[in-house]
Amino acid sequence: MADTQTPTAKETRAAHTALTNLAERARTGDETAVPLIREFLQRPGAVGAFGGDLAEQVFVSMTKSIAGKNLAFREDVRCKLERFRAELSGDNPTPVERVLVERVVACWLQCKTPNCARPKRPTRASSKPTFTSAAWTPPTAGSSPR
């Protein structure tokens, strides 16, 4: 296959299988996988393929933590973060600007996370509401607010 051709479905599946096997070897401590991993990571866009984009890992973890099972809320937060990054980065950010934007967005999310806490209904043992970090869930149709 030439570099300018689009890979076939069979070639794509074979490459995916080889990469998955390589990742598994590295995950289990096979030192012979390291040179191949390094070679792969030299390709444009490859960094992060094995979870090494730590900023992205933090954002994924934080959004899952605040959204819980509410996938609509999680996607809404993800979209907000992408727009915020784009707005702060501008058209052609320098490497330093990209790093600073990631830091600003991470700090913004961390500062906003406590605002996602919602009160729980008081239990019989306590008349005061308690707070949880789970995402706010909108009331269902026909339910009355309390």
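Second entry:
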Amino acid sequence: MDTEKINVLVVEPEKKPYPKEISSELASLQKEVGGYIQAVYPYEEPVAIICDEEAKLKGSQLNRVLRDEDGHIYDAVAGTFLIVGLGEEDFTSLTPEHMKQFKEKFDTPEMFMRVNGKLIVLPMEEEKPKAKKPSVLQKLNDMKGMESSTGVKKPHVKEER
């Protein structure tokens, strides 16, 4: 049996979202989210969020929040979820425009803290690679290179024997 492949956006906790081609079969969707699927339709666009319906009950890591048009949080999605397109009767590939739109929407991973009974959500900063400090030997070599390129020599100290 030939199954249809669809292009979806995968959103994992603490990671940037990425496109992936998967089978549109139920088993494939369940495998991607790690459990029984639940479809949520929070947007006007013809897309759905496919998530594990028991993720919160299982204690899965919170992933991203859903906000209303005023920016207020109304729910948090736990575990890995997918953004899929909606067809007449089934899930379909995201259009390139929707892929770009929702990749940008969920691009910044979020971290969660509970403080005084309230859920605090903060964007996770991308770790920038630390600049490697030059060694003393590299600094000396750089200084020698500067001397030869400028033609100026530093005063030479005569060693005594």
